[in-house]
Structures are given as C-alpha cells and as structure tokens.
Amino acid sequence: MLIKAYLDHNIVSAIAENNMQAEGDALARLLERNDAGEIELATSKVAQIAIVRLKSTRRGQKVTGLYRLLEKVTFINDDHHVLDFYSHWDQFGGVSYPLVDDDYISSTLREIGIDCSGAHHLAVAIRGGCEVFFTFDNGILRRRSEIEGQFQIVTVTPSDFLNELS
Length: 166
What we know:
Elements: E1 3-7, H1 9-18, H2 21-35, E2 39-44, H3 45-55, H4 58-61, H5 64-70, E3 74-76, E4 80-90, E5 93-102, H6 104-111, H7 116-127, E6 132-134, H8 138-142, H9 144-151, E7 154-156, H10 158-165
Parallel strand pairs: 1-2, 1-6, 2-3, 6-7
Antiparallel strand pairs: 4-5
C-alpha cells in the first residue's frame, strides 16, 4: 500500500539553516523512496515558494541534492477559497479585497492550539488525502493525539517515521 505523506516546509528550512545532518539523511531517504514510487510525498504551494527562495541562497546550495529530489514532490493547493471580491470606489480612490471562506479543518486545528501556519499546512495535507505529516513543529507534535484523533493523520519527524518502519 502506497503511503501518501506531507512535508511541512519547516523540514527543508531547518535542514538548510541548522545543518541537521541526521534529519537531512532521513529526508534524503524519504525523497529517494518517493522517487522509487514506494511513498508519495506532497507539500503545499506555500512550501514550494519557500523552497524556491531557499534554493537560490547560499544556505540552499548546501542541500542542492535534496532540492533536486524535492522538485518531484506533488504540490497541493491552499486551504481557503475565494468566494467573491468586495470593491468600493469613490472620487478619492478605492479599495478591493477578496472575500475568503476559511477552511473548516484549518479553523478546527487553530481551535486546538495549532498556530496559523501549522494549521494551514495540516489542512492542506488532510484535504490532499495524506496519511502522514512530516514536521519539526513542536506545537503540532505535542498535539499529535488530538490531531490524529480528529483527522486520522499521523504527525511525526522523518527520522522517527523511518525508525518505526525499521
């Protein structure tokens, strides 16, 4: 059975910024399994933007091989929907902004104490049908039982996941 798993953007950022060799090796093994078709990795468009930004920096050059493998990861759309636009104009100028429907999953995750960024990524993963959520976010990892109980998605670091498979 193919496992679909989500990479939180903090995984790649932490490796690039903190020289986390063990986690970098774990991520490289997961990306190789993705490339071999043993696991399906996904991440969000927000993470894709962060990856592209990091890739062009000096820090990003340290993990070039990981970025090559990351280019093969599936990118999932965001966790909100634009319903309409509000526009108001008069002789002095105007304003226009989108009216957005907040995702139920994202708002539920924020209610249990996950910050906005974490809730966004988790909601994208859940909506995308992921069974596993790879992260270093302690706020998410501390609430894993609540998350798993409500949404049936496992939250774990890459190295812990690979250790459990062994």
